[in-house]
Amino acid sequence: MISSTQNATCSVEPGTTEDLGVILRILGYTRTSFAVKGGGHASNQGFSSTKGVQIAMYRFPEVTYDARTKTVTIGTGLIWDEVYAALEPYNVNVVGGRVTGVGVASFTLGGGYSWKTNQYGLTLLVDTVQAFELVLPNGTVTTVTATSNTDSFFGLKGGFNNFVEQGVVTTFVLKTVPQTQVWGGLITYTTSMLPPARFRTGQPGVSALIFYDAPTPLTKKTSPLARSYLLFSRPLPTKLLDYAVYLIPCLLRVTQWTHWNLSLTKLYALQYYGQSMAQKSAVLISYSVEPLLPSLFSHNTIPTAYPPIRSKGLLPLNLYFAWTDPLSDDAFQKAIGNSTVILKARAVANGQDIANAAVYGNYATIHTLVDDIYKGNLPRLRSIKAVYDPDNVMGLTGGYKF
Q: What is the pLDDT of residue 85?
């Protein structure tokens, strides 16, 4: 990740909420720049990285399952791999990340597209998040729920970077769901099998990730998916954790951008950027379409910071560029930005009503305007920040600012 090349002056690992409160008060008093790191998978510099003081949340590793309430309390220093492993003995899971190495904190606070989103919605939208433990910039520790503090709960659900601008979240209480074994893997279509795969260069092909975890086993008699050839070490029912670990890309420098559903069959963006960026150390140019049901935003009616509009279920298109040469950072950032402008213009020209669609913050580049993420919710978010952070301590961090 680009952010991993930004070195902090020092790093501190609080072990308690009281420790964290003291740290925030000192940083606010001295007006020292800082960043908060959970899993550290954010690609944008200044989000979980800093040249100042980095607060690393590794000493908040709690995973406590309550069988009576069917909830789990998890610390913000975890990655989803650790959560899945801890819940596996109970045959339950949460609406969480899809690949290994993804941090619990920003994933949940930014939105949370999961393998289970079609069934349950985004992590922050559904009843998945029952409560937050929050350390305010003045050091006060508080628990936030939908009934205890409506405004704070609204802002935490989608407030995103720096564990939101109200302070630092230390734990979540999440609702669990049943978890069976998973059937799935990677299907790759070559140019001889699928003409549009000619978009790709280097290793021609279009890939599809398949995920199935219904209680009824998938068989060749009941579904064509089971008859597909999967590039998977064991195309048999497996654990969700094993499936997630299998999907991790090992790359040095990456950046992402979000967009909306758009047919790429007549767009040669992949071919153009694959060829033009190959000389700049590109190792992967990927445009990933995420097929989700139109109902993905309708699983809960409790107001949330993101998405600002729920009447339309947007299907994010994740642009994923990876390269090795740090001297090419600016070129790739510019390329991915230009590509999104072209794709959006083409989508609008094709009749898609996305001219004013909100951008998904977890996929957006650092140059994204905060207005494009939160739209009409921005005034309320700014007023909430003014109440909980009147001295603008969280303004000493990077990322999107209310």
A: 93
* pTM of the predicted protein model: 0.84
Report the candidate in 91, 121, 243 with the shortest Cα–Cα distance to residue 182.
Answer: 243
The reported pLDDT for the residue numbered 181 is 84
Tokens of 285: 């140019």
Cα–Cα distances (Å) from 4 to 39, 49, 252, in that order, read 12, 7, 9
Query: What residues contact 225, with CB distance under 8 A and at least 6 apart?
Result: 210, 212, 218
Q: What is the largest CA-CA distance in the chain?
A: 67
Q: What is the pLDDT of residues 114-169, one digit of tens each?
A: 888 888 888 876 668 999 999 999 999 999 999 999 999 999 998 876 556 789 99
**Which tokens is 311 given?**
């009447």
- The angle formed by the CA atoms of residues 296, 363 and 290, to the nearest 5 degrees, is 45
Cis peptide before 307 (omega within 30 of 0): yes
- Give Cα 402 distance to the centre of its chain: 19
Q: How many CB atoms lie within 10 A of CB 231?
A: 11
CB 270 within 8 A of CB 343: no
- Hey, what amino acid is at 279? Q
The residues, ordered by sequence, that sit 6+ positions from 87 with a Cβ below 8 Å of its Cβ are 63, 65, 72, 93, 94, 176, 179
Neighbours of 270 (CB within 10 A): 20
Within a 13 Å sphere around the CA of 13, how many CA atoms are in the beta-carbon half? 7
Under a CB-based contact definition with an 8 Å cutoff, are residues 254 and 335 in contact? no
Q: Which two tokens stand for residue 304?
A: 């949330």
pLDDT in tens, 194-216: 555 454 445 555 777 778 888 87
- In the DSSP assignment, the letter for residue 182 is B
Q: Please, are residues 146 and 136 in contact by the beta-carbon 8 Å criterion?
A: no
pLDDT at 170 over 80: yes
Average pLDDT over residues 293-307: 86
How far apart are the C-alpha atoms of 5 and 284, rounded to whole Å? 19
